[in-house]
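ESCALATION

Customer reports they have been waiting on this structure for their group meeting. Please prioritize. Original submission:
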Amino acid sequence: MNRTVLRYSFLTNAPLLAAAAVVIGSMVLSLAWLFPLLSADATYTEMLDTIPEQLRQALGVSGDQTQYFGFLTANYYNSLHLYFMMALVLLLGHRLVSKPIDDTSLNYFLNGALPRASYLIARLVFFLLASVGIAVVSLASMVLGQLVFDWGAPIEWRGMVVLNVNLLVLFLFLGSVVFLIRMLTNTGVEALAGSTGLVIFQYFLSMVEPLSPNLSFLQYFTVFSLFDVDRHVGNTGVFAAVVLGLTAASVAVSAVSVHLFRRKDLFL
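Update from on-call: job pushed to the front of the queue and completed.
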């Protein structure tokens, strides 16, 4: 791994990550501020009860909204946060691997002392560090929001940690796939289009699956079915298997990307 590439990655992507941290923090704290108002509003809870359970699951608004953790999960993490993270992974992946490959010539690697593998591994490590940083910001915002706006209630540490770790490994895997798609395409535009289409299709399947028992088989075709906080909080074995499985898959896909990049044709 090359520290210069790692440092350059940080300098060029720090504004994007800072903006992402601000958005996530402000969204979580805003909902934390609304929690005491909406959780006690009978009209709001009755309105949610009028929505069929299957549709609520598809939209991600199911759960106990009288509790702080359930409120945040139902109103943000099961929907808006996923949309935001999908966009962030696609954009960051494009900035880290697609655009640099398009702008870097073969002569750069032939004449320099930087091996291709070191270059890409540094980019992958930065993506990992950035993802961990986003997860830490998310967790800290959840805890801060409860301390300020739901003072006195016990903090659901287990649920918060499980949720953020689950999201971390899920989007690390999707990020590794974004890197791989770039290795398999000729241009960054093709890679971005392919990655965007794949991620959106995966999420679409996860939304359609709860609508009917006849569509339950779709859970085996989308990685988003592995994001199930309620199940993972109550079953440590399943959660550990998901974390280890997605981590191993991310490492394997990343290794394939590094191998392909070593042989990839670049512009002179």
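Sent to customer with the following note: The mean pLDDT is 84.
Escalation resolved.
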